[in-house]
Structures are given as structure tokens and as C-alpha cells.
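<context>
A single protein, sequence plus fold
<sample>
Here is the protein in question:
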Amino acid sequence: MEYNLDSIKLLSSKMAEHKFLLTYKGNISHDIIMAVLALAEKKMEIDGTIRSVKKKVFNVLIECLQNISYHAEVQNNSRDGLIMIGKNDSEFIIYSSNLVSNDNVWMLKEKIETVNKATREELNQMYIDKITDVPWNARGTAGLGLIDIVKKSGNKLNYVFAPRDENNSYFVMSTTISTPV
């Protein structure tokens, strides 16, 4: 998805459509991840979210936060990101955003498109292949985050890259988790 006025309008309409339970912008450290998860869990309890949906939201949220903490470009000794959880009558929506190197945009688009096109069975096989065959990278990750988000949410990833400067772009990603009506 290209960054344009239509994508901004879509994001704005989604924000208006959903009641936001949680929004955080700033450094995504281990302590922040734990605090955001605790707050999200409390908000979903208060909201009366059923356990199976709460578990899916929680799992997707963990993956989004970890993706930011592991992969966001470091600026001023910080891996900053944005996380938002919205809810309407039929779904939760989780937005995440962080800075990425322009050198990595093409690769990230390819990964997302591959995951988005995969069937459930193909996602399961990708997951197994990553766990068993691929050596983990220097950050201690196996590249499972995007696969896990699509598996847990049951929905494709929506994304946009917004150029920041000649070196970096903002990466905005969202996914939805359906709730029983």
C-alpha cells in the first residue's frame, strides 16, 4: 500500500470508527511492554471482552510490541513506536508504527505480502520452517512475528510506509480481530 491521501483518510476513518482503549507513543522497552500489556489486559477486563478474544488481542499486541522493540530504527538511543488498540461492536483493531530504514522497506513489504497471500496451512508450514530450519538472528528472533500476527488475528495485515527523510520511513501496520456479535 502506498502512502497517499486515501490511506490517511482510511486511517482517520478507522480511528473515528473505533473506541480506543489504549494509545502509547514513545520508547518501547521491556518495562514499557509489560506496562502496556497489563493496561490492555485491565481495559479488556473492564470492557467485558470474552477470554478467547482477549487472548488473541493480547498475543497480537505482544508481537507488535516486540516487533517495534527489536526492529525499529534507533533514534537518540531509543526504539520509539506507537501502539493503539481500538474496538467497535464487531472487532478490535491494533495499530503499530515505528521508524524503519529505507533499505529495509522492500524486504518488509515482501515479507508482509508473502504472509498475506498464504493460506492457513501455508502459514503453519512457514511457522514450522522458521522454528526448525532458520537460524535465529543476532537479536534472538526467528522472524515469526508477522506470521504469528496473521495466524492469531485470522486477518491480513494492512500497512503503509510514509517517507520521513532520505534514510528512513514510518511503517504503520494494522490488523483486526473479530469479536462475536
Summary: The longest helix spans residues 51-71.
